[in-house]
Automatic annotation (TrEMBL):
Cited Pfam families: GerE, Response_reg
GO molecular function terms attached to this record: DNA binding
Full protein name: DNA-binding NarL/FixJ family response regulator
Modified residues (4-aspartylphosphate): 65
Residue ranges occupied by any HTH luxR-type domain in the UniProt entry: 151-216
Alphabetically ordered keywords of this record: DNA-binding, Phosphoprotein
Species the sequence originates in: Paeniglutamicibacter kerguelensis
Domain Response regulatory, first and last residues per copy: 14-130
Length: 223
């Protein structure tokens, strides 16, 4: 990573914003630059320009819109990660679909958030997201788990505690919060998550939740 030290030695994450709405990109850039630990080092309004900027400047994080005039953000994320495998990418969308979220998770995108969501949530995600994680906004989890006519299968060997962890995962909570809810250690909770991913043949928590929904193992949020 290319984080630099800011005032008083604070680590500053360098961020590129890729969005076809210039006003939105400028507003987000300004908001990032008002934070002591975040800095926007450039914006781009097309997929091609965004990919080129990321490869040239190698930022720590990329915020990319799902819909761009010359392609979609998933195509951009795939190209960026092919060139810079350790890049952390957060995708914004105003029109989420479960297919897009699942593909984003499989590509290695770190976060998938609603474009009209709170700025504070985006800033928190940018500060905490790690390579290999997949953070989804709660509103998008609800969209993912809307009832669909999907084939229901039997429980693929999940224990009662694993089902509890899975249900909490489906509500968008992180490992620390889930561990606190279940009165177990974060280390133990991570072990349950690892087991769940293995049993559901999933590569991320989002994939596990999507598979569990298809199998009828979890209900829609709010039920």
């Amino acid at each position: 990573m290319n984080s630099v030290a800011g005032d008083e030695g604070i680590a500053v994450s360098r961020i590129v914003v890729i969005d076809d709405h210039a006003t939105f990109a400028d507003l987000l850039s300004g908001a990032l630059n008002r934070e002591v630990d975040l800095r926007c080092i450039g914006t781009a309004n097309t997929l091609e320009a965004g990919v080129a900027l990321c490869i040239k400047d190698e930022p720590d994080l990329v915020v990319i819109d799902y819909r761009l005039p010359d392609g979609d953000g998933l195509q951009g994320a795939e190209r960026i990660l092919r060139a810079l495998p350790s890049m952390r990418i957060v995708m914004l969308t105003g029109d989420p679909t479960s297919q897009a979220m699942q593909r984003a998770a499989s590509l290695g995108v770190c976060g998938f958030l609603p474009k009209d969501g709170a700025l504070s949530i985006l800033l928190d995600v940018l500060r905490t997201v790690r390579q290999g994680e997949f953070i989804v906004g709660p509103a998008l989890i609800s969209e993912l788990l809307k009832p669909r006519q999907l084939e229901v299968s039997m429980n693929p060997g999940l224990t009662a505690r694993e089902l509890e962890v899975l249900q909490l995962m489906s509500q968008g909570f992180d490992v620390t919060a889930n561990a606190r809810t279940l009165a177990i250690s974060a280390h133990t909770c991570r072990g349950y998550v690892k087991s769940i991913l293995s049993k559901l043949d999933a590569h991320s928590q989002l994939e596990a939740v999507a598979t569990a929904n298809r199998l009828g193992l979890v209900g829609a949020v709010g039920q």
